[in-house]
Amino acid sequence: MKLVTIVGARPQFIKAAAVSRVLRRQHQEFLVHTGQHYDENMSEVFFEELHIPRPDQNLGVGSGSHAKQTANMMIGIEEILLEEKPDGLLIYGDTNSTLAGALAASKIHIPVFHIEAGLRSYNKRMPEEQNRILADHSSDLLFCPTETAVENLKREGITKGVYQVGDVMCDAVKYYAEQIEKQDKSYYFNQLRGLFCEVIPSEKWYIATIHRAENTENIQKIREILEAFEELDAPVLFPVHPRTKGIVTQLYQQYNYQNILFIEPVGYSMMLYLVKHALKTITDSGGLQKETYLLDTPCITVREQTEWVETLSGNYNILANPEKNDILSKIFDTRISPEKKLNYYGDGHSSEKICALLSSASN
Ligand code: UD1
Ligand code: UDP
What we know:
Number of strands: 13
CATH architecture of the largest domain: 3-Layer(aba) Sandwich
Largest sheet: 7 strands, parallel
Order of helices and strands: EHEHEHEHEHEHEHHEHHEHEHEHEEHH
CATH topology of the largest domain: Rossmann fold
Bound molecules: uridine-diphosphate-N-acetylglucosamine, uridine-5'-diphosphate
Strand content: 5-15%
Helix content: 40-55%
Radius of gyration: 20 Å
């Protein structure tokens, strides 16, 4: 098959690293970077470190309102599709880049193949939920990570072209977690010291990421989250997403936090290392909830709901409100039940399953 693949945001680079490696053995891929994420440490670092093939085209769309960003992506993607005439368009996840690809292709009758289909938070105020629903309803092949995702689609009447293949982020975690084990602790600590962080937590740390609009667009919520971090019993390493940088800088100037180590976003291996050896992870990221689950690090998710419901089993993942006391009590009072932890996300070979299904679809 000749495929055009759309990526644009950090988690999509990580997913594409797992899939493209396998895909290119059997299929021809034209890789399009929309330019949604463009800072060196949000984009280029992943292409280099994970050996992702260079994009054949970068649309350079950049940041903007939802409509402006999505519309500019659609214009660029449509031009490429008309020129390349692929057999299908491959999209990942739930970002504006995903939606732009799905709409541009389906309008001109190019089959859409959605990786990470069927996820639902059932909170339609989230832009990601809107993107997921619209992308799934425009897709011809829907590659679901979990049984829950298949059931979610069934409820919306989508049963044709639906395959449960496991989670491609699990492919990435399994592949790269093996590699981080080969490196000594000093390798990561030296990098941290050299690059960003003057004070290194010597033995114990928490790791945190916060970037969802629902948490970052309200100064009261982010202040409560940082106040909880201040009261923890070990330092909190906080790689700050660019969306969160402005508000966090403003609060830091006011409160001069002592227990939080604010650092720039880090590369993938560094992130996996920091998560694997952290006391706990505190996040609102989708991808991190699964990574912590797969790496056996307990997670506190600062959101009202999660689309990765399986991670809640055994209390490996606990939802918390963006309130200091709720976050602290979830961190300190939660008991984990390891016997309830199951393997929901596949065997690390989801990419192979997707590529085989694409091959049979083309016959
Ligand atoms: C996007 C996705 C979200 C995903 C996240 C992954 C949508 C609607 N949201 O959110 O689902 O979880 O990516 O990280 O697609 N910015 C920079 N440099 C960059 C990128 C962004 O400074 O390289 C800043 C800009 O001020 C921008 C803001 O971050 O306005 C938000 O970026 P955007 O891509 O719109 O959404 P994310 O919050 O990154
Ligand atoms: N990540 C990373 N460096 C960081 C923060 C996150 O490599 O500084 C990785 C993280 O391990 C996960 C992915 O980025 O694989 C998650 O992306 P993000 O939280 O931006 O998006 P989401 O998954 O919420 O859509």
